[in-house]
UniProtKB/TrEMBL annotation:
Domain CBS: 354-412
UniProt keyword terms in alphabetical order: CBS domain
Record InterPro entries: CBS_dom (IPR000644), CBS_dom_sf (IPR046342), Mg_transptr_MgtE_intracell_dom (IPR006668), MgtE_N_sf (IPR038076), MgtE_transporter (IPR006669), PRC_barrel-like_sf (IPR011033), SH3_actinomycetes (IPR058838)
Name of the protein in question: CBS domain-containing protein
PANTHER family the record matches: MAGNESIUM TRANSPORTER MGTE
Superkingdom to which the source organism belongs: Bacteria
SMART domains: MgtE_N
């Protein structure tokens, strides 16, 4: 695709953005358009590009030299690195146009937008000229997939009005390959209405993963916009420490109501974590580390650590205890580190490779004490026990970092040391 040809915007999502020297600036996450009067097609103002630290910036279309199948190339000059903020008259093509219901003017048929194509006009402006649409009922007439059609922009109506209950199927297809943290960044850039629609369309597990990566304000907006039953299901899929942190931010009545909707065995560890101070080992720990009994083998331990749902920090070691195995467990015996397990015969017992020389922490240990403990012993996670030496959980380094950073760290605009970068978005 070279400049002047038709470009379908959904295909731009995720493409690298490069300067003329071949250095990558970031990746395309969306396109910004503005509606115009009458039947004039919307003009594309620029691209939303995700740069380092998942910050989204605005790059005007005038800076785009060419669009290739696997890259977007910019002209020379400075790029404004200020965080993108959508203005009142602006429309995010992927975030807001995809899945919109439009009406074909010719016969009044209702269609759903799955993509939009832009082309350059004689004045060198990029405008949306065509829409890819489908029937609002996929699979009709026995087909497994709905038939897609292309229509000129001026053949349909309905994109200028706010639509309630807009779907998210096409948008989620575009965003399907994103990691939870990247999808969370994408959600942050959407209007509240669209953010809620996307959240409702995600399955419980995917939404839980994304929620864990969102700032508290967005977490609260989403969880309070769900039904109590759905909110409880999502909380059950979240890590118990993240669920506890989120519930702490809600009014007491809402906390108790959602906990009642959760399954008792899922709510119990969350309730327990909520009794500890937020900036203590008890408040930061997860109650679901890898826990084994002394007669477990090295092979069993390695099999448990292969669980793809474990964070790298929690997958670095297993905790060995006396029965019972569920937290709060029997007496804590020690930790078996992943690297040591790799050097042992699979049939060996984990009780024979324990590191019991480092004392565990207690729930009241402060954030500073936890940080110092991890740094002193070069650990990525540390066990937490009660007064009877029963294992309660483990604090991982990622939870500590999250509590050390300021609450608004995701929204800060610290800039790289680059003299060619300007601070103000180009008008």
């Amino acid at each position: 695709m070279s400049t002047g040809t038709r470009v379908f915007i959904a295909r731009l999502a995720g493409l690298g953005v490069f300067d003329p020297n071949g250095d990558q600036l970031g990746r395309v996450r969306d396109a910004v358009a503005t509606l115009r009067v009458g039947r004039l097609p919307p003009r594309i103002l620029g691209l939303v590009v995700e740069v380092q630290h998942r910050r989204r910036i605005f790059v005007p279309m005038g800076r785009v030299t060419r669009i290739e199948p696997d890259a977007v190339v910019l002209t020379t000059g400075s790029v404004n690195i200020k965080r993108f903020e959508q203005r009142q008259n602006e429309l995010l093509v992927l975030g807001e146009v995809l899945d919109r219901t439009v009406v074909r003017i010719e016969d009044g048929a209702r269609l759903v937008v799955v993509d939009a194509a832009m082309e350059q006009s004689r004045t060198r402006d990029w405008v949306i000229t065509r829409l890819a649409v489908r029937s609002p009922t996929p699979g009709k007439l026995g087909r497994r997939r709905a038939v897609l059609n292309q229509m000129d922009w001026n053949e349909v109506d309905g994109l200028s009005a706010t639509e309630n209950g807009q779907g998210a199927e096409s948008l989620l297809a575009v965003l399907a390959g994103l990691r939870p943290a990247d999808l969370a960044a994408q959600l942050q850039g959407m209007p509240d209405k669209r953010q809620q629609e996307v959240a409702e369309a995600l399955n419980d597990e995917r939404l839980a993963d994304v929620m864990e990566e969102l700032p508290e304000e967005d977490q609260i907006n989403i969880i309070t916009g769900l039904t109590d039953e759905r909110a409880a299901d999502v909380l059950e899929k979240m890590n118990d420490d993240d669920a506890a942190d989120l519930l702490r931010e809600l009014p007491t009545g809402d906390q108790e109501r959602l906990l009642e909707f959760m399954e008792p065995e899922e709510a119990a560890p969350v309730r327990r974590l909520m009794t500890y101070g937020e900036y203590t080992a008890g408040g930061m720990m997860t109650s679901e580390p890898v826990v084994l009994l002394p007669d477990a083998t090295v092979a069993e331990a390695l099999a448990r650590l292969r669980n793809p749902d474990l964070s790298p920090a929690l997958a670095a070691q297993v905790y060995v205890v006396r029965p019972p195995q569920a937290t709060p467990t029997g007496r804590y015996l020690g930790v078996a580190h992943f690297q040591r397990l790799l050097r042992e015969p699979p049939s060996s017992l984990v009780s024979g490779v324990l590191d019991d020389g480092i004392d565990p922490l207690v729930p009241s240990s402060t954030l500073q004490e936890v940080t110092r403990h991890l740094a002193t012993y070069n650990l990525v996670a540390v066990p937490v026990v009660d007064d009877n030496d029963r294992l309660l959980g483990a604090v991982s380094v990622d939870d500590v970092i999250d509590h050390l950073l300021p609450e608004d760290w995701r929204d800060r605009d610290e800039l790289p040391a680059d003299a060619a970068i300007t601070r103000r978005r180009a008008e």
